[in-house]
């Protein structure tokens, strides 16, 4: 479907996202060509008022709507998005998203801004419902999560001296069919040795600068990819550098061991001795048929065995991920997986809703997407709550099953500082290694500047000197 969009007044930003909530398969064009549907939004501002007129022509019966109201400074863009959402909702008799006009990745950041300005929880939920068209249940969830993780956010003075570090190892045993992360199957991507050498070079150089500037590392996350594809020899070298420059006595140190088929006792003992105190073991599902379908090379029993291996090595906290909306899975399959994972008693469980991403093997197979997962997450929330797990961070992605969310749950006292701060974006987190991204936070305004690394290991190797220099410049600017 091709939809033509015309917006007068210069407020077209983000309206195409609203249209795609109602028509997920559509293409939006601003060109004067033949289309299946035309959306015309006219914006007129005057002293103390805003007039909006909307018209739909084409496959939908002509719908026209005008609204005249007082305009608050800085609120025009939101009003235009809200107006467009209501126009399409009336024309289609659909309400496609429980999050209304909130299409961004981090909706809890909006709640924190309200909290910064002294709003109470009930007032925030009313604002979310009335201004952003968020359904009451989701407004309550967003507020609950933000209030719960707020004590873990740093103040401006702490942000100046304390940062997080992400280290990217962009290799996996195989590539899962839903995945678009930088993760290259080892068998098809020789060059791990060259990549690892460049990574050690970068970690050493950046580590010396951190020490020179007296910047403390509060949380350290080694992800990817699947970092546990590295062998004992590589881990000895990596842990040596990380302990020399990055780890403090209170650093939260997480290693992503997403694939249980990569776990072995020798490496796990090295990780514990090297200061790792948190690990992610991610089955995604505990159904063997689905595991095979999504491109995994392990079984549910290997997940159980891998988890016990991690525990016996002495890892203090374990998080496990499950995905809602995998092909062929409904409420019964999710509950089975969830109950099996909870029997293992991990400190944290993250529930993801499947997002069909560009770059994955399954690119926007929307029939399957629509069939699975819209309301299953609510069942998971109820089960998790009854077992004592609390939602403490939340984020969204485009093209998610049911326009839902990903929620991190944990037992009280086991909330991950890294997860909270990477989502709420109130701490500088530098990304090193393949496919990493750095976000530098201005502690006075909370505005971000970013630095993105290439996903391809060969490009990272080629540009490592340039990337190191860019990172050093930004670190020195913090001081």
Notable traits:
alpha/beta, Rossmann fold, nine-stranded mixed beta sheet, 18 strands, pyruvate-formate lyase- activating enzyme, 40% helix, 479 residues, 3 domains
Count of domain modules: 3
Described by its quaternary structure, the protein is single chain
Provide the spatial order of strands within the biggest beta sheet: 14-15-13-12-11-10-9-6-16
Top CATH class of the largest domain: Alpha Beta
Q: Architecture of the largest domain, according to CATH? A: Alpha-Beta Horseshoe
CATH topology of the largest domain: pyruvate-formate lyase- activating enzyme
Discrete helix count? 16
**How many β-strand runs?**
18
Can you describe what's shown?
With 479 residues, the protein is an alpha/beta fold. It folds into three domains: 1-95, Rossmann fold, CATH 3.40.50; 97-152, no CATH class; 154-478, pyruvate-formate lyase- activating enzyme (Alpha-Beta Horseshoe). It is built from 16 helices and 18 strands. It has helices at 15-22, 76-92, 108-116, 121-132, 136-149, 156-161, 192-212, 232-245, 265-273, 288-293, 300-313, 331-344, 366-371, 376-386, 417-424, 457-478; strands spanning 2-8, 27-29, 37-46, 49-58, 63-69, 162-169, 171-172, 184-185, 216-224, 252-256, 278-280, 317-324, 348-353, 390-395, 406-410, 429-433, 437-441, 448-452. It has a nine-stranded mixed β-sheet, sandwiched between helices. A five-stranded mixed β-sheet has the order 2-1-3-4-5. Strands 7-8 form a two-stranded parallel ribbon. Helix 8 (232-245) links the parallel strand 9 and strand 10 (252-256). Helix 1 runs parallel beside helix 2. It is globular, with a radius of gyration of 24 Å. The model is unreliable at 359-372 (pLDDT under 50).
């Amino acid at each position: 479907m091709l939809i033509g969009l015309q917006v007068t007044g210069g407020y077209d930003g983000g309206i195409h996202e609203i249209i795609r909530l109602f028509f997920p398969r559509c293409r939006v064009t601003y060109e004067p060509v033949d289309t299946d549907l035309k959306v015309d939004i006219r914006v007129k501002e005057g002293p103390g008022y805003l007039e909006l007129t909307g018209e739909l022509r084409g496959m939908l019966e002509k719908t026209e709507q005008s609204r005249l109201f007082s305009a608050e400074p800085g609120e025009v863009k939101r009003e235009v998005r809200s107006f467009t959402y209501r126009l399409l909702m009336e024309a289609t008799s659909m309400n496609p998203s429980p999050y209304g006009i909130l299409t961004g990745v981090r909706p809890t950041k909006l709640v924190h801004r309200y909290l910064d300005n002294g709003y109470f929880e009930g007032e925030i939920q009313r604002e979310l419902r009335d201004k952003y068209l968020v359904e009451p249940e989701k407004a309550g969830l967003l507020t609950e999560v933000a209030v719960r993780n707020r004590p873990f956010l740093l103040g401006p003075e702490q942000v100046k001296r304390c940062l997080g570090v992400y280290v990217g190892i962009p290799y996996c045993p195989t590539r899962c069919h839903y995945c678009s992360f930088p993760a290259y199957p080892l068998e098809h991507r020789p060059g791990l040795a060259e990549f690892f050498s460049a990574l050690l070079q970068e970690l050493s150089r950046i580590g010396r600068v951190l020490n020179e500037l007296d910047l403390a590392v509060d949380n350290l996350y080694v992800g990817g990819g699947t970092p546990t594809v590295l062998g004992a020899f590589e881990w000895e070298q990596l842990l040596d550098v990380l302990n020399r420059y990055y780890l403090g006595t209170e650093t939260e140190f997480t290693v992503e061991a997403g694939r249980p088929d990569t776990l072995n006792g020798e490496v796990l003992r090295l990780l514990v001795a090297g200061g790792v105190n948190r690990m992610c073991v991610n089955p995604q599902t505990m159904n063997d048929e689905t595991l095979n379908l999504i491109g995994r090379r392990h079984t549910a029993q290997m997940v159980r065995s891998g988890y016990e291996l991690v525990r016996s090595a002495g890892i203090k906290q374990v998080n496990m991920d499950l995905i809602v909306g995998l092909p062929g899975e409904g409420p019964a399959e999710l509950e089975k997986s969830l109950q099996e994972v909870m029997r293992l008693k991990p400190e944290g469980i993250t529930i993801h809703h499947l997002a069909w991403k560009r770059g994955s093997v399954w690119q926007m197979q929307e029939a399957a997407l629509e069939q699975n997962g819209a309301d299953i997450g609510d069942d998971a929330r109820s089960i998790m709550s009854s077992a004592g797990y609390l939602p403490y961070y939340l984020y969204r992605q485009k093209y998610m099953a049911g326009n839902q969310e990903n929620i991190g749950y944990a037992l009280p006292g086991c909330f991950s500082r890294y997860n909270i701060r990477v989502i709420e974006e109130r701490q500088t987190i530098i990304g090193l290694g393949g496919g990493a991204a750095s976000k530098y936070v201005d502690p006075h305004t909370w505005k971000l500047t970013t630095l993105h690394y290439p996903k391809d290991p060969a490009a990272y190797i080629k540009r490592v000197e340039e990337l190191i220099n860019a990172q050093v410049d930004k670190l020195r600017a913090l001081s």
